[in-house]
Write a structure and sequence with these properties.
The protein has helices at about 5-10, 10-20, 25-65, 70-105, 140-150, 155-160, 170-190, 205-210, 235-240, 295-315, 360-365, 390-400, and strands at about 125-130, 150-155, 165-170, 195, 200, 220, 225-230, 245, 255-260, 280-290, 320, 335-340, 345-360, 365-370, 375-380, 380-390. The two termini are about 45 Å apart. It folds into two domains: about 5-105, Helix Hairpins, CATH 1.10.287.40; about 120-414, Bira Bifunctional Protein, Domain 2 (BirA Bifunctional Protein, domain 2), CATH 3.30.930. The model has no long low-confidence stretch (mean pLDDT about 90). By secondary structure, the protein is of the alpha+beta class. The protein binds one RNA strand through helix 3 and helix 4.
Length: about 425
RNA sequence: GGAGAGAUGGCAGAGCGGUCGAAUGCGGCGGUCUUGAAAACCGCAGGCCCGAAAGGGCCCGGGGGUUCGAAUCCCUCUCUCUCCGCCA
């Protein structure tokens, strides 16, 4: 969520940001400013009244102490009247504040100036390509390969749980494990602290990273316990420092975590759900950073480089897209997508998404650091996949298959 | 799952319903002393909100209540700890 003061001082910039993200109705901004005005008025009136009532209550105590019962009695009566009025004011202020928060949560983050303005994915900018996308020729899609060797069992996954919950079998399971290990080791070398995180989070955490309100339909939940199954490690890991004031000298803080991710993928049907392309449960190594505001855009570049380095080490051709404003999502100011080439399908698969949120998440979560002047300031948060496993595995199998049908992987993957 | 105890500032730990945002210790920061450091001594220090400022309001796990007045009393929720049971 944005800072109300920022909105107040830059309403046009906020509206422009909303339009750039494809939000045609910018009246939210006007509404929130209006409600804020109301809240402010009620709040200061209430504070004043409360100050008076507090002063009178103290006088009562003093008078009682001095044995002046009559004077105390008179004050008690008058304070009672004030409290009635105060109750009304407080109720009105609380309502205004709730409405303000509700509106605030529905205003998207403002894109960074370096993000290209655009409405559709066609307007994303390719900022980097690596390797030569292989032609189709004899290459088969990964679902044929894994079926032939029995490395992934989709059918039994359907029986045991449902569509999108595959079993990885034998070498398939081993390969995934080795990739996870490789990703985590590389993250460690790049300065990320490895974290093992809970796979369920509570409502506060889901709200902190912006899954609710709005995207709760994406998550599986355990209502009996008030938990959500994590759709990405971003949620528990970023919330790790929720409601904390960090030592400024500790920044930047970098974490890497491997977790399964669960996504309901409600409403997404079609041909890109074949094989490993889109699952309800998949594994991912996530990179998360909490950084000083001055460095967050440099940190975004290095985050991107860290993710790109993994694909290069695997020898998988990829391209990096700088997302245009219309395609980057509600919470980001700037976002890169890494897409790996899957030659058996002749298409690009998104395997990482690296974003800067500036203070959009940290404001909700109350993650601050003590600045040079000793005052708490909000950190900037970033995250990116490093990387999502199934699609990497798909690209890997399709890329390293041989004309004779065998798959010959780089040595370090065994 | 059953029984009991508890939740106060970075940590530990006080706090008869009235001047308590809160003692004290440790830790932290600044200084004196020292060649430097330690020790000792002196001093400074919570967070949030409104406000240009002055100033004001709120916060003693969350929420609600009693009262002129609540960290202190009541209700409720959550969490933690101890014991028992169960268990990877």
């Amino acid at each position: 969520m944005l800072d109300i003061h920022f909105i107040k001082e830059n309403p046009d910039a906020v509206k422009a940001g909303m339009r750039a993200k494809g939000e045609t109705d910018t009246t939210l901004v006007d509404q929130v400013l209006q409600v804020d005005e109301t809240w402010r008025r009620l709040k200061s009136e209430g504070d004043q009244l409360r100050a008076d009532a507090n002063a009178q209550a103290k006088d009562v105590g003093r008078l009682m102490g001095q044995g002046k019962k009559d004077e105390a009695q008179a004050l008690i009566a008058s304070t009672g009247v004030m409290k009635e009025r105060l109750k009304e004011l407080e109720a009105a202020a609380a309502e205004a504040e709730a409405r303000r928060t509700d509106l605030l949560l529905r205003i998207p983050n403002v894109p960074h100036p370096s993000a290209p303005v655009g409405a559709t994915p066609d307007e994303n900018v390719t900022v980097r390509t690596w390797g030569e996308p292989l032609p189709q020729e004899w290459r088969r899609p990964h679902w044929d390969i894994v079926a032939e060797y029995g490395w992934i069992d989709f059918e039994r996954g359907v029986k045991v749980t449902g569509a999108g919950f595959p079993f990885y079998v034998g070498f398939g399971a081993k390969l995934q494990r080795r990739l996870i290990q490789f990703f985590l080791d590389r993250a460690g070398e790049n300065g990320y602290v490895e974290l093992q995180a809970p796979y369920f989070v509570n409502e506060d955490s889901a709200r902190g990273t912006g899954q609710i309100p709005d995207k709760e339909d994406q998550m599986y939940e355990a209502p009996r316990d008030g938990f959500y199954a994590i759709p990405t490690a971003e949620v528990p890991v970023t919330n790790f420092h929720r409601d904390e004031i960090l030592d400024g000298k500790a920044l930047p803080i970098r974490y890497a975590a491997h977790t399964p991710c669960w996504r309901r993928e409600a409403g997404s049907y079609g041909k890109d759900v074949r094989g490993l392309n889109r699952l309800h449960q998949f594994d991912k190594v996530e990179l998360v950073k909490l950084v000083h505001p001055d460095t967050s855009y440099d940190e975004l570049e290095s985050l991107r480089r860290d993710a790109e380095g993994l694909l290069e080490a695997l020898g998988l051709p990829y391209r990096t897209l700088l997302m245009c404003t219309g395609d980057m999502g509600f919470t980001q100011t700037k976002k890169y997508d890494l897409e790996v080439w899957a030659p058996g399908q002749q298409r690009w698969l998104e395997v990482s998404s690296c974003s800067n949120f500036e203070t959009f998440q940290s404001r909700r979560m109350g993650i601050r650091f003590r600045g040079e002047d000793g005052k708490p300031r909000l950190v900037h948060t970033l995250n990116g996949s490093g990387l999502a496993l199934p699609r990497v595995m798909a690209a890997l199998l399709e890329t390293y298959q041989q004309p004779d049908g065998r798959v010959v992987l780089p040595d370090f993957l065994g």
